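Example 4.3 (complexes with small molecules)
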Amino acid sequence: MEFETVIGLEIHAQMKTKSKIFCGCSTEFGAPPNTHTCPVCLGMPGVLPVLNRQVVENAIKLALATDLQINKENRFARKNYFYPDLPKGYQISQFELPIAEHGHIEIEVNGTTRTIGITRAHMEEDAGKLVHDDLEPKSYVDLNRTGTPLLEIVSEPDLRSPEEAVAYLKKLHGIVRYLDICDGNMQEGSFRCDANISLRPMGQEELGTRTELKNMNSFKNVQLALEYEERRQRDILLDGGSVTQATLLWNPDQGKTESMRGKEEAHDYRYFPDPDLVPVVVDEEWIERVRTELPELPGQRCQRFMDTLGLPDYDATILTASRELADFFEAVCAEYDNPKKVSNFIGTELLREYGPERMSECPVTATQMASLLAMVEKATISGKIAKTVFSEMLTSGDDPEKIVKDKGLVQMSDEDELVALVREIIEANPEQAQQFRDGKTKVIGFFVGQLMQKTRGKANPQLANKLFGQELK
Ligand SMILES: [Zn+2]
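Answer. The structure with zinc ion bound is encoded below.
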């Protein structure tokens, strides 16, 4: 029996704002426990929340970037549940009237483009954090994160494989980072996702029973967890059993999912409009102002790199994987106008050390990379030496000129100087020289190799080829 996999994702993106969503406390990560708190986020009786305008603005940006329709009047609701990291006994979220609904983005998997629906995006506050000490054993509550603004982005169950789920996640990750509304750090939990997954017999309209997966803090874990759960459900169904609706935790160390609790439904939360907050009104003027301030998005930028810089699809896609990388690439091109050469060098030399998400840690500036490439262009150094110089730049952060000078790496392009060495090498290898004269011209590679060894890679390779051709005759 053939089954079809159905996946929907719920993404929580932590909004990049200085203060929390309903109070003035700082959102900075890593402060001593319970120092970024006040009566509002501690949920003291009698306090009143005040909405952070920036959170609404960030939500508008996301809505415009993903074709979501903005609800010009939307409102907050209380989601009631008890947990030690939730001092109020309810989370302020949005329920029947979220800020935006009915959007979509396009993803590409194995050369096929698919449109994935986005059901809704809503604003909400984060809960606190429990820190467990297994030795004592004791648990501690840290409420610094309480009230941190989140945007929850819920997809339609349109994804049909773990690959598509990861492609969708990566696409949205790119969008929130380009919009600069979320830092996208998955390890610190500022971009996290839960997944609903179910299987149904091929051709069946009705959805199968789903499970919800939590605790997947990297793209790789999302892929592995969904693959595991897809297999587990298929085995149950093939055995004639039925899947139990549940919330499962992904255990990355053991590579399997573990049961966390029975799945709760929306009505379990007793949602009702928050009486302490007025409806949020977003007028056309506000939307239009935000629209004019939107940056170029990854898809548009990728297209521009192909259309105006003449880059192949492959290069443009890699270079626009993060805003930082695309900015860096354009900054190098501004000083060294050969986009394809810049792209090749970034693709082979830079990305091996620093992925698109780690560009901020790279010590090499765009100016330094541009002057390194210019040195190759002017034949001051060879392309091979440029790689050595670049890896030195990555460690020391020094200018390429300084490294080339200090290490004596300037390319040898002086004909008289090289011809003496060429003759010496020919004399020392009479057998190979004879082979060349007998018509085995490929042996010239051997001679050039010898010269490179003697000059520690500094001989100009074109000149070396020419000189051996001329001297071997
Ligand atoms: Zn506070």
